[in-house]
């Protein structure tokens, strides 16, 4: 049986939104998987679900507003109850590489403020070792060459992300360096090293963050939980 990523994304999204409850403040991730979740939430809100959203990108904000989902500014909230977001890769320990869409800064802040963090994914995102997908690293433009040199010391190779022939610029006005470290056997240690490099605003290793990953596979879903790892 062939995988159908679009269908798997939709199934995971449909499953995730069943977790939402009246009164919650909900973090809305970014990307093509979350697109489906926001659509589903729009329908639930039309049918009476009372939640308020906090977006991780302009795209998710605009989609949510167009669907009539009430939205809050992150600086007007002191808590986020639950966040649903996508991922570029996840491993058996529910460690993630995120930021393929370049929204990693807001995604990490929203995740850090969230009591519960749910990741949704199609089956292609599950890997034995992180690292086939290059680690997105958001860098203040002044520090780009310095950071690339520092990545070399970590046995990494970083290329500045381009889009349509231009340097990709994040919503914060920064650049993304996509870091190739080969298979990442110790994501927690690499994450710590990256945290220590001046000029890096945020990186796409989301370690010990996801509470669960809902993965669409063929015509069903499988849920992996952090609780089950302990
Ligand atoms: O981190 C992200 C954006 O910054 C996305 O969650 C990630 O890139 C997955 O995207 P998609 O659902 O389109 O595969």
TrEMBL record:
Reactions catalysed according to its record: aldehydo-D-ribose 5-phosphate = D-ribulose 5-phosphate
Biochemical pathway: Carbohydrate degradation; pentose phosphate pathway; D-ribose 5-phosphate from D-ribulose 5-phosphate (non-oxidative stage): step 1/1
InterPro entries: NagB/RpiA_transferase-like, Ribose5P_isomerase_typA_subgr, Ribose5P_isomerase_type_A
Pfam families: Rib_5-P_isom_A
Broad EC category: isomerase
Superkingdom, taxonomy of origin: Bacteria
EC number(s) stated in the UniProt entry for this protein: 5.3.1.6
Binding of substrate, residues: 30-33, 85-88, 98-101, 125
Residues at the catalytic site: 107
Assembly information from the UniProt record: Homodimer.
UniProt record similarity statement: Belongs to the ribose 5-phosphate isomerase family.
Protein name listed in UniProt: Ribose-5-phosphate isomerase A
């Amino acid at each position: 049986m062939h995988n159908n990523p679009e269908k798997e994304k939709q199934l995971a999204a449909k499953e995730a939104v069943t977790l939402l409850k009246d009164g919650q403040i909900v973090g809305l991730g970014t990307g093509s998987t979350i697109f489906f979740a926001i659509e589903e939430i729009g329908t639930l809100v039309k049918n009476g679900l009372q939640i308020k959203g906090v977006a991780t990108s302009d795209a998710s904000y605009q989609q949510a507003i167009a669907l009539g989902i009430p939205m809050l500014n992150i600086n007007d909230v002191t808590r986020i109850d639950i966040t649903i977001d996508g991922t570029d890769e996840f491993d058996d320990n529910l460690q993630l590489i995120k930021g393929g869409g370049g929204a990693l800064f807001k995604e990490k802040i929203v995740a850090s403020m969230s009591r519960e963090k749910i990741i949704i994914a199609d089956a292609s995102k599950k890997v034995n070792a992180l690292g086939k997908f290059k680690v997105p690293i958001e860098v203040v433009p002044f520090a780009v060459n310095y950071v690339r040199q520092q990545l070399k010391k970590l046995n990494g190779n970083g290329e500045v992300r381009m889009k349509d022939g231009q340097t990709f610029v994040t919503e914060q006005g920064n650049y993304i360096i996509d870091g190739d470290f080969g298979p990442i056997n110790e994501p927690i240690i690499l994450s710590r090293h990256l945290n220590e490099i001046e000029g890096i605003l945020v990186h796409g290793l989301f370690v010990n963050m996801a509470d669960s990953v809902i993965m669409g596979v063929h015509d069903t879903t499988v849920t992996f939980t952090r609780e089950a790892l302990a």
